[in-house]
Every structure is written in C-alpha cells, then in structure tokens.
Amino acid sequence: MLREAGLEVGPGRIADALTALDHIDLPRQDDVYWSLRTTLVTRFEEIEPFDRAFNAWFLRAPVIPPVRTRAGQRLRATTVRRGEPVRGGEEKPAEDQLEVGWSATEVLRQRDFAAMTPEEFSAARRLMRKLAAVRPQRRSRRLRPHPRGQKLDLRRLARRSLATGGEPIVPSFRRRIDVSRRLVILCDISGSMEAYTRGLLLFMHAAVEGRRVEVFAFGTRLTRLTSALRTRDPERALETAAATVVDWASGTLIGASLKEFNDEWGRRAFSRGAVVVVVSDGWERQDPALVRREMARLARSAYAVVWVNPLKGNIDYEPLSAGMRAALPHVDRFLAGHNIASLENLANTLSAIDRRHGA
Fold first, then answer.
1. What domain range includes position 59?
2. Beta-strand (E) ranges in the chain?
3. pTM for this structure?
4. Of 11, 54, 94, 249, which has the highest C-beta tally within 10 A?
5. What is the arrangement of strands in the sheet containing 173-180, beginning at the earlier edge strand?
6. Do 319 and 236 have their domain in common?
C-alpha cells in the first residue's frame, strides 16, 4: 500500500520498521505510528501519503486514492473521513464526506456459484467476459512484420525502395510473434457438479466467443458443446446446451469420457499442443485405473493440463476421491473453481503457461 502511495519502501526500510516494532508496545497506536513513520518516511512530501495509508490499513478509514494524471496536470488527492478526524489532516464539512463500507463487485467476486441468485449471475457475466478473453500464448512459426524484428524483410524492403528510386532507405524487419494457443475445456455436468454447472457454463460461453476454443461436456458420455455455446445470448446458449446434452445431472464416468475424447477428438489433433482444462470434482463411478491411463494419454498429447475442482474452494478439502487421486499425477496445475475470484486465478494461470507441462 505504501508503494502504491508513492513511497520508496525497500528491504532495508522494512527491516528497520520490523526492528522498531519489536521494541514498542504494539497495542499503543501512537507507538506504532511513530515507529513506522520514523523508519519508512524520509522526505516531507511522503508524510501525507503515509498518513493516508496508515489510516486506511490500521484504522480502516475510507480513503479515495489520489487521481493519477499526465505530466503537467495538477494532482488531486482527496481523503475521505467519517466521524472524528484522523491523522494527516482536518475534518472536512459534512457535505464532502463519502460513506464507503463495502464493494458490491468484491462481494460478487467472493460469492460461491452455488449460492448465487439469477440477478447475481447476470451481474457476474460482465466480469466473466473479461476473464474468458485471456488465452494461453505460443510463439508463431511464421515471421511477421515488426518494428523491433531481428531478421530483414527483403520483400518488403524491395517494395518500399520503389518509391525512392530503388534505394533501400527505410529498413523493414520481421520476427516471430505470440499468437493464441488452442484451449480445450472438458466440463463435468454430472449430478455432483449441478450446483456449479451454471456459473462454469457462463464462463465457457464467454470463452467460446474467441477463436481456437473447444468446449466438451461429460457425465456418462462426451458431448461437444462448442457450436451450442456460440450463440450471443448466454441464456439461449445454456438452453441449447441443455437440450444437446442427454446425460445432464446424471452419473460420472470420467475415465470413459476421457477415453472417448482421446480416441475420437484426440486423433483429430484437438489436444495436440493445446492447453486442456478439465472441470470436475473428481468423483468416478468406475475403475479409477481407467482415469489414470487416459489422463496419461491426454498429458502426453496436450501442452499442459489444468484441473479445476469447485470443491477445492473449501479450506478443508482434500483430494481423497479415487478419481481425483488417479488424475493428479498427470495434472500440471490443480485449481479451485467455485467463484469469480478463482476464475481470475485460472485466467492468470492460463496466461502464464510458457513451457510444456510447466503451468
């Protein structure tokens, strides 16, 4: 928070601050304030942002951060106070005070999909659209024109030289650029996943709007949902998906579904070099050895395998089910998927995959 406020807080100052806190009575507010201010503030202009950060962190005082503008424009920093004045300034008139207590967006981010209302799902769609736009990247094989390229583009250079009488005055370069890697999502729509299916399908509907994305649903069998989810209206897309899947909210045959994907769609190179995201709670009704064997096949073909389990959002969760234990040795990253915040973590993970099986 101090760095965001503009203070240059390095390891040395942090060590001095911790040493100072070891020698004071921590329940005394003044002792904490002056110890941190003495060790972390070195210039007069840092006192005001330090006071705002101290009030916001320790006193939970609502604060509007300073507006950052371009150079040459005046910076305005407004501190909002409620009740008695806090450190670093005087109390403002009542009409300038702003009551800030909670953020509706932050509450929605932490809301479990199983507890969301239809109105909250409608509000969550806007957040999911931004998250679903994130794609894993790969370096393209073809060279593209680029101002900071390292290889000379002779064809473009010769074409441009026609305007200067054949003299190659303006050089042109090419280099390999980053393009989107194929993303394959396998979503469990069995009865044990019914509480989270709607939220996860909304996320997949937003993801299918981009290119090189394939979505499959599985319960007791595998169903391709890519074409059903390409409708712009999410409610209509969910209705089409529900009509397409014949085993909705039924049992779970993870191993058989993975085998069907590897046999039919894996041979069509759907998983070759792709990032495969398996969304399931890991409950398997048949032999878990089949799950282990098919996950090994999938890991050999895919660039990376990410398993998203909504139950992992519970702090007491342990992957004890037979299907989950059989799949984990072949999973590159094991993530939660019970709310929007966990989907943000998934998006960050997908964007950071930069080497094979190194999620």
1. 11-96
2. 137-145, 151-152, 173-180, 183-188, 213-218, 222-224, 275-279, 304-309, 333-336
3. 0.65
4. 54
5. 137-145, 173-180, 151-152
6. yes
